[in-house]
């Protein structure tokens, strides 16, 4: 039997995993500047955490969730996105309490799961970096979130980006706009796709997000939400746009953008790249927005939030396609060459001691001849080699060689165990 990874998943192998580590490190450093702290929630949650928050008519709930009943007959779901689990943790751990600093800013990294057709940059197990900030309704926090996302992508070397912006307004806006969409789409009901016929009854806003070509033709002349904003919603959106202008962040307003989850309100955004990784078409790398009611739905007080999610696989595909070289550190400081079985114990002690001094060190574990060991050191781009044979062992010395300068000196083992850096200075 041939064992293979499940469809829609991938193995992240050495050399590739270093790229992931770099992305995670840079992200942590940047988000720390904005005072975001990491949260780690379970990979699986109760089904209701997502069915209540994502919306019963969303594709995630109706088509894509990996859900099952465990041995205790509990309905469990592998998380399809990060926000709902973070909100559940926020409520359960009472992070809304008055003594907790507001806005409460947190970020997460990890795998998500959706049962959909695997394609480039879209897997069934995919990885997401996300941020959430709770406890402030200020438009300035929306803008900070967008600015933070743009800064993060630019930190990785992506400069040709497009920020698409829209608003879903407040509750009254949504109610008025919903009725306008029902009035518009009802005469076309027979022509709508089966999915959109259901959405027309439950959530007509979802029709705007349909991928069906026939639906998209009908959507072209649909009412625009900007015409239904309440004065308060219009003021919020105007302020967001004004503050983006003040920060010099260019954007386009896309009135057909609704996002794939039902919990958004007011500001929503997508940040896209036209990388050749996706044929030069504008493809979303990062997206998010403001939401309210989510904390309340999961048992907490009425409190709004704002955040975004970034797809790591898509980001890495773009970095590769754009040939952006990540500063991955694969250095090897010292390779210890042992000649003869008698040196086995000493070379093992020596590489361990060098590592405890903060160096990256290695030795042979395959019984290679000296020539083979030196080839390994060269292939691994070792900066130094330390060679110990029977004679050197008897004299408690080793031969230290700078692989670039090709210079070599004899050094005391005792000095190497004490301070390798001071010994190496003699070759520099």
TrEMBL record:
Catalytic activity field: tRNA(His) + L-histidine + ATP = L-histidyl-tRNA(His) + AMP + diphosphate + H(+)
Localization in the cell: Cytoplasm
Binding annotation for L-histidine: 81-83, 114, 128, 132, 259, 263-264
Domain named Aminoacyl-transfer RNA synthetases class-II family profile: residues: 23-327
UniProt keyword annotation of Nucleotide-binding present: yes
InterPro entries, sorted: aa-tRNA-synth_II (IPR006195), aa-tRNA-synth_II/BPL/LPL (IPR045864), Anticodon-bd (IPR004154), Anticodon-bd_dom_sf (IPR036621), His-tRNA-ligase (IPR015807), HisRS-like_core (IPR041715), HisRS/HisZ (IPR004516), HisRS_anticodon (IPR033656)
Keyword terms: Aminoacyl-tRNA synthetase, ATP-binding, Cytoplasm, Ligase, Nucleotide-binding, Protein biosynthesis
GO terms for MF: ATP binding; catalytic activity, acting on a protein; histidine-tRNA ligase activity; transferase activity
EC number: 6.1.1.21
Presence of the UniProt keyword Protease in the record: no
One CC-aspect GO term: cytoplasm
One GO term (biological process): histidyl-tRNA aminoacylation
Broad class of where this protein is predominantly found: cytoplasm
PANTHER family: HISTIDINE--TRNA LIGASE, MITOCHONDRIAL-RELATED (PTHR43707:SF1), HISTIDYL-TRNA SYNTHETASE (PTHR43707)
Assembly description: Homodimer.
Family the entry assigns: Belongs to the class-II aminoacyl-tRNA synthetase family.
Protein name as annotated: Histidine--tRNA ligase
Taxonomic path: Bacteria, Bacillati, Bacillota, Bacilli, Lactobacillales
């Amino acid at each position: 039997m041939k064992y293979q990874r499940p469809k829609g998943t991938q193995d992240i192998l050495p050399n590739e995993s270093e790229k992931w580590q770099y992305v995670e490190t840079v992200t942590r450093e940047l988000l720390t500047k904005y005072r975001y702290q990491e949260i780690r929630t379970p990979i699986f949650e109760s089904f209701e955490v997502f069915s209540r928050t994502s919306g019963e008519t969303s594709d995630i709930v109706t088509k894509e969730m990996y859900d099952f009943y465990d041995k205790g007959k509990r309905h469990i779901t592998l998380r399809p996105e990060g926000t709902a689990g973070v909100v559940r943790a926020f409520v359960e751990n009472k992070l809304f309490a008055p003594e907790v600093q507001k806005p409460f800013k947190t970020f997460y990294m990890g795998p998500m799961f959706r049962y959909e057709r695997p394609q480039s940059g879209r897997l069934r197990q995919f990885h997401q970096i996300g941020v959430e900030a709770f406890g402030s309704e200020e438009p300035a926090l929306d803008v900070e979130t967008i600015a933070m996302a743009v800064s993060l992508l630019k930190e990785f070397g992506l400069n040709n980006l497009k920020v698409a912006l829209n608003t879903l307004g407040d509750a009254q806006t949504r109610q008025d706009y919903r009725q306008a969409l029902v009035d518009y789409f009802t005469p076309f009901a027979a022509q709508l796709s089966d999915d959109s016929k259901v959405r027309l009854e439950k959530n007509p806003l979802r029709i705007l997000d349909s991928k069906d070509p026939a639906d998209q033709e009908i959507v072209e002349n649909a009412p625009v939400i900007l015409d239904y904003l309440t004065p308060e919603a219009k003021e919020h959106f105007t302020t967001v746009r004004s503050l983006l202008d003040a920060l010099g962040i260019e954007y386009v307003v896309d009135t057909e953008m609704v996002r794939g989850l039902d919990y958004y309100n007011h500001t929503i955004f997508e940040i896209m790249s036209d990388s050749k990784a996706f044929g030069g078409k504008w493809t979303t790398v990062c997206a998010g927005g403001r939401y309210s009611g989510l904390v309340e739905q999961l048992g907490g007080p009425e409190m709004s939030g704002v955040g975004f999610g970034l797809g790591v696989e898509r980001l890495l595909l773009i970095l590769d396609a754009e040939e952006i070289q990540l500063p991955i550190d694969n250095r090897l400081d010292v390779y210890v060459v042992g000649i003869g079985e008698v040196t086995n114990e000493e070379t093992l002690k020596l590489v361990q001691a060098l590592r405890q001094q903060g160096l990256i060190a290695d030795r042979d574990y395959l019984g290679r001849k000296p020539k083979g060991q030196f080839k390994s050191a060269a292939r691994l781009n070792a900066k130094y080699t330390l060679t110990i044979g029977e004679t050197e062992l008897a004299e408690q010395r080793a031969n230290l060689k700078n692989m670039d300068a090709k210079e070599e000196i004899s050094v005391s083992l005792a000095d190497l165990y004490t301070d390798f850096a001071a010994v190496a200075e003699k070759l520099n």
